[in-house]
Amino acid sequence: xxxxxxxxxxxxxxxxxxxxxxxxxxxxxxxxxxxxxxxxxxxxxxxxxxxxxxxxxxxxxxxxxxxxxxxxxxxxxxxxxxxxxxxxxxxxxxxxxxxxxxxxxxxxxxxxxxxxxxxxxxxxxxxxxxxxxxxxxxxxxxxxxxxxxxxxxxxxxxxxxxxxxxxxxxxxxxxxxxxxxxxxxxxxxxxxxxxxxxxxxxxxxxxxxxxxxxxxxxxxxxxxxxxxxxxxxxxxxxxxxxxxxxxxxxxxxxxxxxxxxxxxxxxxxxxxxxxxxxxxxxxxxxxxxxxxxxxxxxxxxxxxxxxxxxxxxxxxxxxxxxxxxxxxxxxxxxxxxxxxxxxxxxxxxxxxxxxxxxxxxxxxxxxxxxxxxxxxxxxxxxxxxxxxxxxxxxxxxxxxxxxxxxxxxxxxxxxxxxxxxxxxxxxxxxxxxxxxxxxxxxxxxxxxxxxxxxxxxxxxxxxxxxxxxxxxxxxxxxxxxxxxxxxxxxxxxxxxxxxxxxxxxxxxxxxxxxxxxxxxxxxxxxxxxxxxxxxxxxxxxxxxxxxxxxxxxxxxxxxxxxxxxxxxxxxxxxxxxxxxxxxxxx
Length: 586
Fold this sequence. Notes:
Layout: E1 3-6, E2 8-11, E3 14-21, H1 39-62, H2 70-83, H3 86-99, H4 103-119, H5 124-145, H6 167-171, E4 176-180, H7 185-191, E5 196-201, H8 209-216, E6 221-223, H9 228-231, E7 237-241, E8 246-249, H10 253-274, E9 290-295, H11 301-306, E10 312-316, H12 331-344, E11 350-353, H13 382-387, H14 389-402, E12 408-412, H15 418-438, E13 446-451, H16 454-458, H17 460-463, E14 469-472, H18 474-482, H19 500-515, E15 519-522, H20 525-528, H21 533-539, E16 543-546, H22 551-559, H23 563-574
Parallel strand pairs: 3-4, 4-5, 5-6, 9-10, 9-16, 10-11, 11-12, 12-13, 13-14, 14-15
Antiparallel strand pairs: 1-8, 2-6, 3-7, 7-8
Helix pairs in contact: 1-2, 1-3, 1-5, 2-5, 2-7, 2-8, 3-4, 4-5, 12-14, 14-15, 21-23
């Protein structure tokens, strides 16, 4: 029987293949109390299990094949950091020593406690890391019980295949699609050699590790498909529509033929897009457009260079600070990371945003604890940095030193007032003075402001007096302008980048920057949304920054655009009182 399962589209494309069901059920844990003299032994059992998993993941890292996506290595790093997190370790010890819980019970209890903290985080990426923590704990439990992890699927092999309108001959060796409740980075590494055509998971979101790796491997994927691993049977024929977030099980010959045709079209389109890598992004009327990449780690520079990015428009440095149990990176470590990014970009500019973290996404439980009525409006981003100037200047000194190795732009997040600007620039001056006092060389910087608070957008002309460039963070700008928490499912449908108020703020910032002769870039989701490209060009935007995977499709739209024709049309859009859903189609 043919039926469809709906989930989240996280990696585009069409995959057709036989279902391989991964065994990834959660471990059952027995709860019982121990005697006081058993505390040391129970604690040692947990530590032995933790150490064994650490060793296993480190071996996997060492054995990573050269063609493995860098995201796999980065996610293995995340799991290693979680394994060695002091909050997890100390919490487990307390449950064993104070409550006399057995080791497994203590481990799952502490997982539940930390999991609640993840659930309360506003940032979607950080909320998704709860799944990583659950997988780390599950791996420890499996080792303690001597139970094997998910069984690796069989290698693809030629089998007698039903001839569905001739498609069987076309596939030759049967492709496989992987279906699981969830997959850890280590699991995906084990599955890699089986060459799956696509992934489906019951759980996960757009920033889950499965989604991240699937995008990096350019493999169609649907996550959050609820009970897919229970509804789909081993060896069923499955179609994954990674564009629509739909899984079709046991498709009819007509459906299979249609998706086979779409699959071939997608393949041809990707091949054609890849030829644009070295084509300059110039509009039909001769306007040069700069396409930058958003990155989280130096390794992200490689895919950015591969698709022809002209630099890094946003390096989210907060990822260097997370998951360290309060042991923040020192100046030398940060300097090394920033210098590596510059080296990988081979002389192209790199824009480093200072740490954008705060009440809604704390570095760890012990670092600036508190109760926050509204985390999104609390002590975060530049407010956090100015409240901890020692940490802030450590980062500033590292950035200044890295600037002696290449073109560095320094970007400050969430500025909203003149006093914050003055305090921030004073900290930069103090960081320079500290390096001078130590006789350490440093380079020159271009300094910029993130425009992501309506107050900053309304005061843009005053801001431009102090900065060399500005970058519009559209995600937060939409959230704050419309008073919509994009992480709240009850109101998420109201999060509308096309709202006239948002578009007018964006257009005004672009116009003011252009009039002042200052560079302006859009680095939020809007920058990589191809349906917004023509509208932003019409507003006068000439610099975009986005995930590397989005660069070529945005470049294609630019090559087809004439900014002379778009200018008048964009003004008509601004005059509209109703949000426009598809500006690129107008």
